[in-house]
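can u do me a favor
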C-alpha cells in the first residue's frame, strides 16, 4: 500500500513538474508577444509624435504668415481713405473699388478712373483682401 502511495505521489510530482514547465514556456511566449506588441505600439507613438510635430510646425508657420499678412493689410483702409480725400476731382476710389470688386483689372482702373498704377494696384489688393475676409 505504501508503495502504491509513493508511486501515485511520484506520478503526481511528475505531472506537477510537467505542468510547471508548460506554464513557464507559455509565460515566456506571452512575454515575447507582449514585448512585440509594446515595440509596435512604441513605434506607432513615435510616428504619431513626428506627424504631430510636423502639423504643429505647419500651424505655427501659417500663424506667422497670417500675422504678417494682417500687418501688411491693416494700414490699407486708411491709405484708401487718404487717397479718396486727396483727389476729389477724379472718379472716387469707392467707385474704383466697386469696379475692382466686379473684376476690373489694374489696367482698367488706371484707364477708366484716372488712377496711377500704384493706386490701382492698391485698390485691387484692398478689394481682394476684403473679399478674402468676407
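np, heres the sequence
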Amino acid at each position: 500500500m505504501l508503495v502504491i502511495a509513493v508511486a501515485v505521489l511520484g506520478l503526481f510530482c511528475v505531472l506537477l513538474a510537467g505542468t510547471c514547465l508548460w506554464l513557464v514556456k507559455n509565460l515566456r511566449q506571452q512575454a515575447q508577444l507582449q514585448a512585440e506588441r509594446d515595440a509596435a505600439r512604441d513605434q506607432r507613438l513615435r510616428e504619431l509624435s513626428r506627424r504631430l510635430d510636423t502639423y504643429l510646425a505647419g500651424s505655427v508657420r501659417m500663424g506667422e504668415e497670417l500675422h504678417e499678412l494682417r500687418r501688411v493689410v491693416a494700414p490699407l483702409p486708411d491709405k484708401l481713405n487718404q487717397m479718396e480725400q486727396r483727389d476729389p476731382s477724379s472718379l472716387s476710389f469707392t467707385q474704383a473699388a466697386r469696379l475692382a470688386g466686379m473684376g476690373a483689372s489694374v489696367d482698367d482702373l488706371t484707364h477708366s478712373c484716372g488712377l496711377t498704377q500704384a493706386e490701382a494696384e492698391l485698390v485691387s489688393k484692398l478689394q481682394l483682401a476684403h473679399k478674402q475676409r468676407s
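The helical segments are 2-73, 76-86, 93-101, 106-113, 117-133. hope that helps!!
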